[in-house]
Amino acid sequence: MSASISAPAEVITHVHLESPDARRARLATGWLIIVVGVVLFALSFSAGATATFALSDAFDTVQLPSIALPAGPVVVITALLCLAAGAGLVSGRLSRTWRRVANTVAGLSVVLGFLSWAASSSTLPFPVSNQLAGTVALATPLILGSLAGVVGERSGVVNVAIEGQFLNAAFSAAVVGSVTHSIPAALFAGVLAAVLTGMLLALFAIKYLVDQVVLGVVINLLSSGLTGFLFDQLVQPNSSTLNSSPIMTAIPLGPLADIPLLGPVLFDQTILVYLAVISVAVVWFLLFKTRWGLRVRAVGEHPKAADTVGISVTAVRWQAVLVGAIFAGLGGAFFTVGSTGTFVKDITVGNGFIALAALIMGRWHPVYAALMGLFFGFVTQMASQLQTLSTPVPSQFLLLLPYVATIIAVAGLIGRTRAPAADGQPYVK
Amino acid sequence: MPDQDTRGLQLRGITKKFGSFVANDAVDLDIRPGEIHCLLGENGAGKSTLMNVLYGLLQPDGGAIVVGGVEQHFANPRQAMAAGIGMVHQHFMLVEVFTVAENLILGREDGPVVDLRAARTKVDELSQRYNLPVDPDAVIEDLPVGVQQRVEILKALANDAEYLIFDEPTAVLTPQETDDLMAVMKKLRDDGKAIVFITHKLREVREIADRITVLRRGRIVGSAEPGTPENKLAELMVGRAVDLQITKPPAEVGDVRLRVEGLSVADPNGTVVVDDLDFEVRAGEILCVAGVQGNGQSELADALLGNNADVIAGAISLDGVDITHARPRETIAAGVGFVPEDRQHDGFIGSFTVAENLVLNRYRDRPFANGIALNLEAIAENATELVEQYDIRTESIQKLAGQLSGGNAQKLVLARELSRELALLVASQPTRGVDVGAIEFLHKRIVEERDTGAAVLIFSTELEEVEALADRVLVMYRGRSVGVVAPDTPREVLGLMMAGVPHDEAISGSSGSAGAEGERS
Amino acid sequence: MSTAERTAGRSAFAEYVSRHWRDWAITVAAFVLAMLIGAILMVVADPQVSANFAYLFTAPQLALGGAWAKVSSAYGALVVGAVGSPQALALTSSKAAPLICAGLGVGLAFRAGLFNIGAQGQAIWGALTAAYIGFTFELPYGLHLVLAVLGGMAAGAVWGGIVGWLKAKTGAHEVIVTIMMNYIASGMLAYLLTTAAFRRPGREDPISPEVHPTAALPSIFGQFHFGFILALAAAAGVWWLLERSTTGFSIRAVGANPNAASTAGMSVAATTTITMTCAGALAGLAGIQFALGPSANGAPVPLTLGLVGTVGFDAITVALLGRSRPVGIVLAGLLFGGLDAGGLAMQSVAQTPLTLTMVLQAVVVLFVAAPALVATILPFLKGRKLKPAAALTGGQA
């Protein structure tokens, strides 16, 4: 009846080159790896004879042997691997897969080479199991905090207030735990405090359209002041009743916990560690498989488009911020009931910001953000381990590594990071 | 007045105010199944406001919406959609990083867990039923504009819309894509849908409308039969007899001032968007670059100014001096005047005063600065002078530029650029969103600048403007020059060239098939 | 010419008043509301006082009287400690001086559209360098001070400039970079205080030798010292830079609309780097105030880990409250400086912790950031148009 419409042949003839951003990132990464390789090579001259790695500590039932590596050759080999990987990246001839291989090889080589060098200067072995256990402990709040950010920012609300949510949650969990002697109550109180902080964030960001980064910083100040004031005025004078919460105990997962080396690290942990792992999966599923997640992402990318198909941008953003706050609350509670059971002023010492960095380096993706959280935990733990080994590098510098890594990352080394398009932008009809 | 027919959709006395500004003043509109109803009006006449009211995006201050005989109040688009209203937005409401299928089910998911397989099936089903082929798994940002629009149409259809609003749908399309769209609209009409087609392009109206309603300054000023001549429609739309052709003296062409050789420019993603382009502009002539939006014009303009352009090959020279890799500060000093395409975004600073904006690219020069210190007096004097000379309507030179109307803001930009001696004026869409009175004024100033011996380069997507201003026309398609032709080249030929058909073929092609269009322009 | 000038001046003033009177009203209202919230907090956090509220309906005088006594004694001590005596005023000025300097550093960056959370790190470098020059070298009066001040400002400028340069070159977001640079600065300070160059001979804890008197900021009256004059001069300088210089023109243009600025021939990259360098120098000057300003005993406090406190974060509230304008920042700095000084008195006299002032600061800024909220609570402040917080950071359209 009517004219049939032929689909025009949409052959796109545009020529694609490597974008300037991608090229810059590739070259910068390559050169950085080369520089690290050269440094490792230089370090190989000062390496001791052997680097010992202890796989078990004295209390383990199954004692694994310690591994002794010839430090000099290991460092040289890792240096060469770095140089090769860096040269490959700089040459620009590697395919996408091989670029990934080069990055991975370089990363592992740096860790192994550096550790071997550092451990070789000490007669004590480097305790691998401690390293892994500490990594998990340090990473748990980072992972939970970064998930809070992922959910909120996917909906378009920037969350710089993770630190404040941590603080309020840590404080509330400690106090309620002390009063009730109940871990579940403490966790609930922590989550509630973070959700209330999230409500403050949502109210000012979504309803009153306050610049979200500025808002986050102010909420952090408010949280620090509030918990500090209540601590000074109320908690410290009554610390036996208000600041001595019970702490969580590890829950071994049956025989899995008895696996040497990895068992205690992965399967003999507190409930919060398990919750952190589960949360990563939950957030992934929520965001990418559910109706709610589809709407959250739509609202974060193109709020007006969501509005025109009848989705309430405001409601979805509120929900996302508050759901995110639940994870921040769990992460915050970890600092008190997951640790010593007592609160001190500013106990979170900037972990909220590291969680923020993890989420950005993890490109707003729950799994990658969690991996970055693990990485930061690993580096921080390594720094404190090396401190006790009295290595030639001042440990203060190692402690700075996560911060330097973040700067290098945001300067474009991890390629183009793409935030949700409407991240941080208030929606006005 | 409204008939008793319960089918169809009626707007009765819709009034919408923004503060003291009345965007819609007691508007009545009657939309019937099986009809294409054209809503015609200038920029700012209130067409989009009216449709946003109908779609539930805005709430009216007065009047009623009656759908199928039942009065409705739409608090949000969801309720409008439930009543069978669908909208194809001018700026597509598609999430760029989502696939077609994800965009289609957004807002109407069946259960708490997304079923993408069902969504794909639905896309395939719809695209077959309406003959709108599209890959359900394609990511929107990878699709050409015409296909994105298809997705936008499918989205409306997926909701079983009976009333479809097309808001300026042809602005971003090539003539070919426009023809395809027209065919789609006709088929939908024949299927019994009611269609509202919003446009300010008269030829499209004549081709497709079953009924025409003209809106001016928020009021209905009349309706017209489909066969009404274009000049009659234009008169209704503008409110007086219009003669868009300005009489300009013939060009007195001098030496070559701007020379572009083998120029290629890449966009930030590394895509080559200006591809091996050669042309030159002489003193005292206006070269118009015609083409559909997004065919490399913006990037070419940016390359001429030296602003954020990644020139990967070729050379640009001005009066014999190479400016290929010069930065804006250097090209401005070399005598390039620049009127950007998006004046809000690039042309002026809304939170700066009129006076400050008038020296935005000269604040470092004498007499506006002595060394590092600004000379506020000289800046104010300059502003007072230019405001008068260019008839910029503002209470005070200390008012913020963001408070100016579109036409006055454009006058401000042009005043700033033309108030110094130019070797080359580059102006993109110089009259977009400007009322008719100001258009004439701006065109006159541009021609005057030509007559001082400057080379003038105009980028325009409006053929009317090209015809009014050009001494020569360069047609651009996908970053390449399709050819340089005289301004009196028939529109059909220009249209085909804008779709990439070379000049010779375009001439034979248009004389063979475009009979229906005739010589009406 | 002169009449034209005068009318131009008058109309500019009229413009200012019509644009800004509500800002002032909102600020005052925000402060009052914050004090109210602070009062509630004090009552709730004091078990003895809040216990009386059980008798609110049976014996209201007990509950309300107790609350009134608590709040009035605390706020009374606060006011007296801030402005109640010449010594109090001197203390306020010495607390305000670094806040003003760092606030200018944050505010200047805001005007260029940059959020400088890094004033903390920049101030640390300023303090560290000034103190090092102050306790290491033996130089005559005058020269020593000038060198220490310039050295501190230069160190802050470098620390801020790195951020601007990274942003200009790579697009690295300044918020993330400055947060990280803060941690790196405090880490470096911690490390340096363990080295021979910085650690006081004979001490194991991280504390530096005392700054020589030749490098100390001279006292005018007690703790009212030359540093305050420096802060006012810095504010005047920033005002001139922003409002009367070509550099300031480009800073404001880039902040308000970087695209239009770039189209008009300004270099966004250069402006970003220059702005962050200047901002760093100003925050460095704040650090200098801590390192070289006389303490209660007349001599500067030696360098320790916490010498600069949280000045970088307080500076953000100062800049926000002062709406990134130099005059506003001076007033906001004085206000928060007064809160700090009075807070000390409140702590010792009324046993109300100093941390309350932090809460007050944050709440004031929250209210100021959301004028619509204040207008909801106090309807007489409703204006025709309620601008969102963009106005706070200085003129982004």
Plain-language structure description:
- The complex is a heterotrimer of chains A (429), B (521) and C (397).
- With 429 residues, chain A is mainly alpha-helical.
- Chain A has helices at 20-44, 71-91, 96-120, 128-154, 162-180, 183-207, 212-235, 239-242, 262-267, 271-289, 291-301, 303-308, 313-334, 336-340, 351-361, 366-389, 395-399, 401-413; strands at 50-54, 67-70, 126-127, 251-252, 268-269.
- Chain A has a 3-stranded mixed sheet with strand order 2-1-3. In chain A, strands 4-5 form a two-stranded antiparallel sheet.
- Helix content of chain B is 33%, strand content 25%.
- A 6-stranded mixed sheet of chain B has the order 6-7-8-3-9-10, sandwiched between helices.
- Chain C is an all-alpha fold and 397 residues long.
- Chain C has one domain: Orthogonal Bundle (ABC transporter involved in vitamin B12 uptake, BtuC), CATH 1.10.3470.
- In chain C, 71% of the residues lie in helices and 1% in strands.
- The longest helix of chain C has 44 residues, at 2-45.
- At the A-C interface, helix 7, helix 15, helix 17 and helix 18 of A face helix 1, helix 6, helix 7, helix 12 and helix 14 of C.
